[in-house]
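Aim 2 progress update. The chain analyzed this quarter is reproduced below.
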Amino acid sequence: MLSAAPVSLADVLARPDVWRANGLASAAIPTLGSGFAALDDELPGGGWPRGTLTEILSDQVGVGECSLLMPALAQLADQRRFSLLVAPPQALHAPAWASSGIDLARLIVVSPSRAGESLWAAEQALASGALGGVLCWTTRIDARQVRRLEVAAGSGETLAFVFRPARARTESSPCALRLLLSAGASGTLAVDLLKRRGPPCTRTLNLVVARPLEWREDHAPQSTLARRQFPAPAARSQRPAVIA
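Predicted structure tokens:
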């Protein structure tokens, strides 16, 4: 019986799937560029991680959280991949998303009436591995539920984001990447990397993003907008699919 050749520490450290605590994780991590060079420089692998869950924390709706992700979502649209929004805080302003490069025919919006249904929908979507991106908004989620989303995200190479209130920063999380967003100086978006694979990021990134996307496209209640889920063919490219 042949014995395995000894493996040295240098051999282990040379592996692309091994990262050191004093350096950013290897570029072997599947990523998609964020569209912001300063942010990519601080993200392990040089972009948004795929096949894992990223937490985005903020106390403001419309501070620029969607504008931050728009370049990546536009790349997915160019790749003819579908993106799913689960329980967005308000109705989308479709023209703003379309002008940001999003093909609305490949954008799906699910608006369940209960938080548990939202998390179930996000988990099933991630576990399918069929979507390019999944964005889920929630104000009530515990570490066990976050872990379920994280495990589901590992089923493929989907870009997966969960949006939570800023107070969640004091809670433990299985997510390898956590960001805190706030309004920065001179109209910028302030981004603090609370957690990443590698050394702590000690500086706040002030990113120049496109103006924060408007959410509500009119004053109709969400239920009224949801009833327009099957528009006429001529209008199909003008609105995302909405599922209540």
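The chain has seven helices and eleven strands. The helical segments are 9-13, 37-40, 65-78, 94-99, 115-128, 143-153, 222-226. These observations will guide the mutagenesis experiments scheduled for the next reporting period.
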